[in-house]
Structure formats: structure tokens, C-alpha cells
Design goal:
Number of domains: 2
CATH architecture of the largest domain: Orthogonal Bundle
Strand content: 5-15%
Largest sheet: 3 strands, antiparallel
Number of strands: 3
Number of helices: 13
CATH superfamily of the largest domain: Fido-like domain
Structural class: mainly alpha
Length: 332
Amino acid sequence: MVYVYKKKIGKKDYYYLRVSEKKGNKIIVKDIAYLGNSIDEVKKRLGHFQKYKEEIRKAYKRIHAFLEANHHLEKIKALKIKKDHHLLEKTEEVEACRLHYQDIFKKRDKLTKKEILKNFVIEFAFNTTSIEGNTINLAEARNLLQEGITPKDKTLREVYDLQNTEKVFFEMYRSKKGLDHECITDMHDKLMENIDPRKGYRMVDVRVLKSNFDATPAPFVKTDMGLLLQWYKKYEKNLHPLVLATMFHHKFEKIHPFMDGNGRTGRMLMNLILIMKEYPPTIIRKKYRNEYLEFMRIADKGKLSSIDNVDYGGLVRFNAEEFISTYWNVFL
């Protein structure tokens, strides 16, 4: 396998063409060429390697994503922006994603943007529903949402789960409504259509399994949701949008305002906040479900009003990793 590798020496980046080959039970890794210390140099020199021309071609998507990510990272570093208190070293990488989203993705033709967003929503729908136990796999989700082919031996609930997620995401992406009680309850109602008839904030107490908190008692759900919306308005301009979206998602889950569908609604609301703030949406992947839930549990120890890095540092940086990975895998 051929790929581009970045080595940092002091404050300077150096790029190499690297190859890894399996020999017996061992993987041998070696640098085969120095490519320069800027992305422009790398792009010029990559086309001159006849020996590895086919390997480079096969690895094009991975190499292209690496180069685009680092090209926009170099642009952000040149701006010398201040590191966010919560994101720390991830601040510049997150901003590199936003820069590409604004300067490249949003300026693509309408059809290309539609296709990219469709790919995003398939990945998002699969992962966010799988976290909650949906057993439809990614290939089946793609067939369902792209071709209208219903997977065999799956429940209608699981099928509606994916279809509702796609519908709600595109409605949200196009409308970009403000965040209020009506927006939240309407989003939940549509996500739960044909799945759970219970609408609106819950009127019954619930117990959240494997959590470090007690969900808000039923009589106080609307009050706490009102306080959460007040918290959002208070910190809307003071917190980085990804931090704001992450904390809002967690606090929403801690209130647990609905009888069912809280996780799916919370992750959709996280994306609503990102989109309203002109950032790309994100995906929390099913394969990292355990890590995600563990960071959520750590954050459970904080108060509903908290923005403390002790409570939220791990969750924010986990979400930042997912945000960065999502972007360069989907939005190129």
C-alpha cells in the first residue's frame, strides 16, 4: 500500500511517499521518496513516480483526502487562530474542514452537492440508527435509500427508522429553522413516525440504563428544556460551534425529554446546530459506540449548566475526531 506520510520536525512539516508491504507475518514500512515540505510540492512530485504509478492511482482517494486536509490545514495555520479551550489541538483541523466546506463544497454544482449529501445521509442514517440497535447494515441501508429496495428479514420499524432519518435530515438542511421547543418536538415526531405514536415531551418518568444520571422527572421536562434553550442562547456566541453542538447534545440526552428516540433526535439536533453555524454536519460511527457512550457517561457527572472542560473535554475531542474523519471521508 502506498500513501503520503507527514513528519513534523520542530515547527515544520515534511512529506514522504511511504509504502507498506506484508512479508510473512510482518508489515514492512519504508519511506521511498521525499516529497517536500508543502502540499504544492507534494502534488507536483507525486506525478513523477513511474515505479509506483499504479499503486498511487489505486490509492488516489485516500491520498487526495490527505492532501486536501493538509492543504486547508496549512491555510488555517497561516491565519494563526487561537486554539479553543475545549478543542485544543483539534481546533485547526476542525476549522480546516469548515474552510473546505465553505470554499469548495458549497461552490460545487447543484447535482454534485446533492450526490455528496445523499452519501452523507446514508452513512448518517445507518450509524445513528445502528447505535440504537437497528440491525440494517450499511449495504442494505444504501439499497433502501438509493434504490428503494427493502431489506429482507428486517422489521418495518427498522425500515421507517432509516427513511425517517433521511427525510428529517434533508428537511432540516434545507430549512435551517431556529432552535426552539416547536423545532425539537416536530423533529422528534417526524423521526418517530410509524415507529412510536407518543408525541411531545414525556409525561411519564423514565429510567436510562447504564447512565450516571437520573433523567429529569416528568413534571419538569418542559422546564428543563426551556433552561437548555436559555443555556444555548447564553453560550451561542461564546462557545465554538462544535463545542456548543456537542454540549447541547449531551445536555439534551441528560434531560431525556421523550419516551423514545432521544439519541436519534439529539444527534440530529447536534447537526442542526452545526449547519446553522455554517459548519458541515457530522456522524458518530457505530463502531465507536462504546467510546461515545463512555464519554457521555463521564460528562453526566457535570451539572446541566456546566461547560467545564473536566466534564466535557473527552466528549468534545471525541466528537472533533468524528467530525474531522466524517468530513474528509464524505465531503470531498
